[in-house]
Amino acid sequence: MNTQIQYKQYELEDFDGVIKLGNIVHGDNYLDTEKCQKYYDTSFKNGINASFVAYHNDELVGFRLTQAANNWDINEWCSPELWQLQEDQVCYFKSNTVNADYRGHGIGSSLLMLSIEQAKLQGAKAGLAHIWLASPGNSAFKYFKKCGGELVKEHPNRWAGWYESHGYICPVCGPECDCTAAEMMIRF
After folding, report:
1. What pTM, to 2 d.p., does this model score?
2. CA dist 35 → 5, 15, 30, 64, 148 (Å)
3. CB crowding 8-45: b at 16 or more within 10 Å, else e
4. Largest alpha-carbon pair distance within the chain?
5. Cα–Cα distance measured from residue 117 to residue 131, given in angstroms and rounded to the nearest whole number
6. How far apart are CA 50 and CA 164, in angstroms?
7. Which CATH class is domain 2-187?
8. What would the pLDDT profile of 170-184 be if each residue is shown by its tens digit?
């Protein structure tokens, strides 16, 4: 199937497809136009875009949103004291999403590798992600670990309160999300 998949850098024209797929996979109100614009703007450093999308027959079937080092907020859900790198050397893997009908064919890994290559050109030495441990079969954690991700720290209730602040509805918990995130890092 990979020979039929077209990969390209994330652009404004991809927003509608990214919003639709993101909300199907991650839950209602996970993405909207404002968030897509923010992630698009923060994907760039030194004129290099680190985010990618995947298409099959003009249908968006996957995306990897990556925020360049120094272009994302290091917050209470991050543990920079454990990273063994300077904060300005770490990009953020915001979201890797693949349509359920296309999983298991290497699309997520391909999107990640494309983003890593661009992040290296931007000057990053590693990428951080908060991996959703409630994904079906814990597939997100298994995928990220297989791609070289190392667990930094687990964060219980990572998305608690997002319904009130973002209107987010978790596909597992509903509005009152108590899912745990695994803070994970891939070193380049």
Report:
1. 0.91
2. 25, 10, 9, 14, 28
3. ebbeeebbebbbebbbebbbebbbeeebbebbbebbbb
4. 45
5. 21
6. 30
7. alpha beta
8. 888 999 999 999 999
